[in-house]
Amino acid sequence: MTEKLTMAAALNRALRDAMRADDTVVMFGEDVGPLGGVFRITDGLTAEFGDQRCFDTPLAESGILGMAIGMAMNGMRPVVEMQFDAFAYPAFEQVVSHAAKMRNRTRGKLTVPIVIRIPYAGGIGGVEHHCDSSEAYYAHTPGLHVVAPSDPADAYGLLRHAIASDDPVVFLEPKKLYFARAEADLTAPVPPIGTAVIRRPGTDATLIAYGPAVPVALEAAEAAAQEGRSLQVVDVRSIVPFDDDTVCDAVRSTGRAVVVAEAAGFGSVSAEVVARVTERCFHWLHAPIRRVTGFDIPYPPPKLEHFHLPSVDRVLDAVDDLQWEDA
Amino acid sequence: MTRDAALLLPSTEPVTLIDPDGHPVPVGQDMPDPQALLHAYAALIAARRLNDQAGALVRQGRLAVYPSSHGQEACQVACVQVLDDGDWLFPTYRDTAAIVARGVDPVQALTLLRGDWHNGYDPAATRVAPQATPLATHLLHAVGVAHAARLRGEPTVVMATCGDGATSEGDFHEALNFAAVFRTPVVFFVQNNHYAISVPLDRQTAAPSLAHKGVGYGIPGERVDGNDVAALLSVLGAAVDRARSGDGPQLIEAHTYRVQAHTNADDPGRYRSADEVTPWLAKDPIMRLETFLRGRGLLDDDTIAAYVEQASLVAERMRTGLAGEPETDYRDLFAHVYAEPTPQLLDQQALVADEVSRD
Ligand SMILES: Cc1ncc(C[n+]2csc(CCOP(=O)(O)OP(=O)(O)O)c2C)c(N)n1
Ligand SMILES: [Mg+2]
Predict the structure, then answer these.
(1) Which residues of B touch A76 (CB under 8 A)?
(2) Which of A221, A286, B76, B156 sits most deeply, having the most CB atoms within 10 A of its CB?
(3) Pairwise CA distance, residues A20 & A319, whole Å
(4) Which residue lies with its CA nearest to atom 13 of ligand 1?
(5) Within this chain, do residues A254 and A281 fall inside the same structural domain, yes or no?
(6) Do A146 and A222 lie in a common domain?
(7) Which CATH superfamily is B5-328 part of?
(8) Transketolase-like pyrimidine-binding domain: which residues (chain A) (predicted)?
(9) Which segments of chain B have a pLDDT < 50?
């Protein structure tokens, strides 16, 4: 039963279905009530479920996170929205010191089944503080799951999994992809958090991407095909836990890889992917793994962001660099 | 809920019912009944004994560190005595005596400071949250626990403690504001012991008092003599009743003093004089209650001896329970990171298992 819908609509459906299925699921944050969130992801939830289940809080991100942790300690499954990636930073201490550690500190006696939804990353012409790729901060913190879908079907399925998870999940929603339409069957099961997926088969080299970089990788693969080069595209989907098996099997099958990510490259998830794959696939590699990432700069202003974001050309140049002459 | 600022302001002086010499202070407030005072007295003796014993265990190397509540035991005892079984306590690192007063096994309560795990008791079963070290962060969890209970229509009240220094943290403000806006049944209990490690209260705030901070959020504030357990029982008890009846949160500031070092690792000689400490010794919470109860014929040497004996059982339990090295298991490191360990964590555990098997 496929339909054509946006990621925003799929996320809204996931929240609605989860709240219908489980009374302990509550949704709160800034402007998520009657307004439906600045991106309208929570549209209609207060109307359907009442303002005890979907509500606005005072403007205080640490407060939102801390209260969610307390509610989770006492039997609820809160989903919270941070209005934008860079506005989640005031909540960082609550995420890192409490959400991530509560299970561990208490040997599993207290758990924090919360979902931290974060409209994430750039490419939307946003002014400063509205376009950060903050995944590395969370991915570096043991105790958190970190997920970044790239299409409506995954957005729906992964958000349902995230809400059902007994662990805290940082759910990164690529803003750039919110309103892109795609065919999706929301009734089809999505594999659990922790599984990557091959988005496009290919035999010459593997592009590894997640979130907003996936469409860029797919476009690059399409362009490469015109030139007779067959690129495989892996969508990581779940940054933590990381699916070493799927990613490494893919790289072994081609012997060449490029990691594509929007975040600055230094100390990043893309660096981790290169390290992991190299440790496991060294003898299969015909060339060092290349990365196409954002530069190591604060996120640029709208008129300059196109210089910064991984582009199809930059990806193809990196692919060209994979020592084909030695093959 | 009132929005009349005057009604939210604390009294001009901290509420006192029994003065430092053990005399009742004539005020409008009711004295707690004799049973409650005797119960508090026994708990005070036990709390003091626990503090002393923990200090000794640090010196013997059995505990890594101990932030003592010596001199603040009235606060420790009262904030627990006013709670029902279904209520929650959200303590700080300095509140071990309160946790034990709530019924938690002292050896489990000291797991954090012994160092064999971050938390040793079952918070869900005991309704005592893990001791919070990141200052004021737990106050928001207290609001969340109370809010969840309220959504389900449960009569739970949450007692959340912090120090004077912690009131400068952002989370203190966010917690008070959230609690006020959502009208959650939380009692915020600030033990103002006048120091945050070395930094005195006047470097922490320019407000008339910490209790005055409530007015900014629409929360009633009250000040109470933190070494007068009778006044604490009365003021905290009223705040708990008020919260339970649906009237929202309250902010209580107890005036007390940290007579000892911040922890055993601290050197208070670098930032305050002995002259400053001495007057507070005369305000000790135990002596004044003892004098008062003896004066009323409610306490005699035999009863005191019985309480001391009870307290020594707690100390004995600490000495035996904390003797020797704790048993640890490396598998615990990996077992409680996620509901299910990730493949990567299983690999890392296998690495340690291999190392251990070679030892
Ligand atoms: C967020 C944070 N910053 C700093 C510290 C280090 N620290 C531990 S206790 C303390 C002083 C706290 O003073 P107060 O709140 O008055 O409580 P008291 O120790 O006097 O009971 C400090 C600075 C901490 N635990 N958490
Ligand atoms: Mg203090």
Answers:
(1) 148, 151
(2) B76
(3) 47
(4) B196
(5) yes
(6) no
(7) Thiamin diphosphate (ThDP)-binding fold, Pyr/PP domains (3.40.50.970)
(8) 5-180
(9) none
- Residues contacting ligand 1 via CB (< 6 Å): B 94, 133-135, 162-166, 193, 195-197, 258, 262
Q: Which pTM value belongs to this model?
A: 0.96
Q: What is the mean pLDDT of residues A162-166?
A: 98
The CA–CA distances, whole Å, from B188 to A55, A91, B75 equal: 24, 21, 13
**How many domains would you assign to chain A?**
2
Task: Kindly report, residue by residue over A58-89, the tens digit of the pLDDT.
Answer: 999 999 999 999 999 999 999 999 999 999 99
pLDDT mean over A103-132:
97
Provide the 3-class DSSP secondary structure of residue B127.
Answer: coil
Question: From the CA of B93, how far away is ligand 1's center (Å)?
Answer: 9
Are residues A136 and A242 located together in one domain of the fold?
no
Alpha-carbon distance of A35 to A79, in angstroms, equals: 17
The residue-averaged pLDDT of A144-154 equals 98
Q: What are the domain boundaries of chain B?
A: 5-328, 330-359
C-alpha span between B92 and B82 (Å, rounded):
18
Read off the CATH number of the domain in which A48 is found: 3.40.50.970
Look at residues A185, A219, A250 and tell me which one is the last residue of a structural domain: A185
**Domain interval for residue A161:** 2-185
**B135, B190, B204: which to mutate for ligand 1, most atoms within 8 A of CB?**
B135
Q: What does the alpha-carbon distance between residue B247 and residue A114 come to, in Å, rounded to a whole number?
A: 28
pLDDT for B27 equals 74
pLDDT of residue A327 exceeding 60: no
Question: What is the per-residue pLDDT for A174?
Answer: 98
pLDDT the model gives residue B4: 87
Cα gap B148→B282, rounded to integer Å: 43
116-145 of A, contacting B, C-beta below 8 A: 142-143, 145
Assess if residue A190 is contained within a domain: no
Of A58, A93, A165, the CB nearest to B134: A93
Q: For residue A84, tell me if it sits in a domain.
A: yes
Distance from CA of A70 to the nearest CA of B (A): 4
Phi, psi of A143 (to 5 degrees): 110, -15
Name the residues of B annotated as catalytic: 258, 262, 271
Predicted pLDDT of residue B2: 62
- Is B136 in contact with B175 (CB distance < 8 Å)? yes
